[in-house]
Amino acid sequence: MAEDTYLTVEAAAETASRERSSKFLSYIYPVRTEEEIRGHLETLRKRHFDATHHCYAWRLGPRGERWRANDDGEPSGTAGKPILGQMLSAEVTDCLIVVVRYFGGTKLGVPGLITAYREAAAEAITTARVVERTVDREIRVDFPYMAMNDIMRAVKEYQPTVRAQRFDNLCTLELTIRESRAAELEERLKKAGGSIAENEE
């Protein structure tokens, strides 16, 4: 996999499995923000208000820089971590996996729980369609009207996505291009008479 690509899931998916008498429902969602994650968790808690546990893990960022695992009352390390472990081994990020458990009366023990949650998460990933996405950088270039032809030539050559454009005495283009080609494009735009606006964090 290239430096500026990562794997995620294309759309939400769900699966169900049984372990002894407990029922496990697994849900996987593509997500970009913690707000989205909270929304999905809230929806599932309402839908399965009578479930015993809602265990989950999520990863955000092209390299999964931000993550969390939650056991939701199961013995420590038996639910959230195995779910997260499956995300790490499938190398998926920008996604949330929730495993809802309905306790059926038979205790599974620590090894049994770890296996059940691990398999439920793995099944969710297998059911979803895993896709490759590029890590993109946003570039804003300001330039005088007279530099228009040279700037547009550079844009045609590198083919970034044009998100917004304003043409006046001072013109502005807002572009998105994959990370590995961003520095080259910026250099080319500067040579064509543009000035690159610094990204405000």
Label the structural class: alpha+beta
What's the alpha carbon Rg, rounded to whole Å? Answer: 23 Å
Q: SSE string, helix = H, strand = E?
A: EEEHEEHEHEEHEEHE
Helix content: 25-40%
Give the spatial strand order of the biggest sheet.
2-3-6-4-5
Strand content: 35-45%
Using the alpha-carbon principal axes, give the shape: elongated
Number of strands: 11
Q: Unreliable stretches, pLDDT < 50, 5 or more residues? A: none
Number of helices: 5
Largest sheet: 5 strands, antiparallel
Mean pLDDT: 92
Beginning-to-end CA distance, first to last residue: 27 Å
Could you give a quick summary of the protein structure above?
This protein has 201 residues and is an alpha+beta fold.
Structure description:
With 201 residues, the chain is of the alpha+beta class. It has five helices and eleven strands; from the N terminus they run βββαββαβαββαββαβ. A five-stranded antiparallel sheet has the order 2-3-6-4-5, with helices on both faces. Strands 9-10-8-11 form a four-stranded antiparallel sheet. The longest helix has 19 residues, at 109-127. The protein is elongated, with a radius of gyration of 23 Å.
